[in-house]
Automatic annotation (TrEMBL):
Protein name: Putative 8-amino-7-oxononanoate synthase
Matching SUPFAM superfamilies: PLP-dependent transferases (SSF53383)
Superkingdom assignment: Bacteria
Organism from which the protein derives: Pseudogulbenkiania ferrooxidans EGD-HP2
Domain Aminotransferase class I/classII large: 32-377
Length: 401
């Protein structure tokens, strides 16, 4: 077996299942899960119609590069959204969701054959695919703690020069999972300058970009355009899962540096990751429509408006810049104990923040927080928030003064 498999950590939800395995929640309360970031809103009818209308596509082998129609739809959307004019033939590549692409892109990019061990720079907390992909590619991780004191943003100045010299890939997640923080143009400018100096590729994970509450979040493509840059050493990854409530379709695309995407296409040709023609046709329909995205965004905004006023009197939690998570600091700082007791006493599941992060630079930046995913319907989210309030009030009443 590949010995690098031994370096992989248990997935956060595996750890959560272990934590709650012997817990006995009140049977009278129906379970409400706010732990997993799985969209629960209905899939758009236009996507379902397109799937049904294109079932003949199941009879054919799809090309790894995708159909011209899909690449054009992705390029058109990127131009409308980011003002970036992409070449659909060389700067756009359909992928089976951003998770698959993040993993395979890392395998394609990392060269572990040199004298110095390559480094992947990752935010901390983070989506665990970043870590697993880096370890299995033979790289080591350099974690950048994203804490409240720095607006939950990576501190590029805090990376030592010897790390930058070995860095081959820097992963950005903006809007961030779990914090919802968005990188500003100054931070992008700094990161681009570092890429120019040290030669690493930037992979910008933007799967939460379309769930926002004010202005559309800045992305890597729009940052490059605003700074008058080319797309050299930049790859943006996005997905329909959150934007269009179709996580089961496994559909997204990557865009950016044509030289990187050419090699990535070669890798994917051998990797066997072509998207079904039926799913491609439905994806064209999704990327070409914004009405369902606006309705989806409004539904999330309504949930935040209903839930935050309930939680803020008892939890330290703020409105995120984007995304569908609340990143809440728990009262006593023990996120694991909080999550277990909440499940046992109120039958609500949230994810301990420390499960989403690693001990780095003397701290685990997820410790003391829980991630609350507002993915269920509004009534369920409100009911869960009310139970969290009752749970905290009961805990406080039981604590000696």
């Amino acid at each position: 077996m590949n010995p690098r498999l031994d370096q992989l950590h248990p997935y956060p939800f595996q750890r959560l299942a272990t934590l709650l395995a012997d817990a006995k929640p009140p049977a009278a309360l129906p379970h409400i899960s706010l732990a997993m970031g799985e969209p629960k809103h209905p899939a758009p009818q236009l996507v379902k119609d397109a799937l049904c209308a294109n079932l003949a596509g199941l009879s054919g082998y799809p090309a790894t590069q995708g159909t011209p129609a899909l690449r054009q739809a992705c390029a058109d959307w990127a131009e409308r959204r980011y003002g970036a004019k992409l070449d659909p033939a060389g700067e756009v590549l359909p992928v089976n969701g951003s998770r698959e692409a993040l993993f395979s892109l890392t395998q394609c990019l990392i060269d572990a054959g040199g004298a110095a061990k390559p480094v992947v720079v990752s935010p901390n907390p983070f989506y665990q695919i970043y870590e697993g992909a880096a370890l299995l590619a033979g790289a080591e991780l350099h974690y950048l703690n994203c804490e409240a004191t720095n607006r939950f943003q990576p501190d590029w100045d805090g990376v030592p020069a010897d790390v930058w010299r070995r860095a081959q890939l820097v992963i950005v997640c903006s809007p961030g999972n779990p914090t919802g923080a968005v990188m500003d143009l100054a931070a992008w400018d700094q990161l681009f300058a570092l890429s120019d100096r040290y030669g690493f590729v930037i992979a910008s994970d933007e799967c939460y970009s379309e769930i926002y509450f004010d202005a559309p979040p800045l992305g890597g493509l729009s940052a490059a355009r605003a700074l008058g840059r080319s797309l050299e050493r930049l790859v943006m990854l996005t997905s329909l899962s959150k934007r269009s409530n179709v996580p089961g379709m496994r559909s997204g695309f990557v865009a950016g540096d044509a030289a990187v995407l050419k090699q990535f296409l070669l890798y994917r040709t051998y990797h066997g990751s072509a998207m079904s023609l039926t799913v491609q046709a439905a994806s064209v329909a999704a990327w070409n429509d914004e009405a369902h995205v606006e309705s989806n965004r409004a539904a999330y905004a309504a949930k935040f408006a209903a839930v935050l006023p309930l939680l803020q009197p008892v939890l330290e939690v703020e409105m995120p810049e984007a995304g569908f998570y609340l990143w809440a600091r728990v009262p006593d700082g023990d996120d694991v104990a909080f999550a277990r007791a909440l499940f046992e006493q109120r039958h609500v599941t949230v994810l301990p923040g420390s499960y989403l992060a690693r001990d780095a630079h003397g701290a685990n930046p997820g410790r003391g927080y829980v991630r609350i995913a507002l993915v269920a319907g509004q009534a369920e989210c409100v009911a869960a928030a009310q139970r969290i309030v009752e749970f905290i009030q009961t805990q406080r009443a039981a604590t000696p003064a």
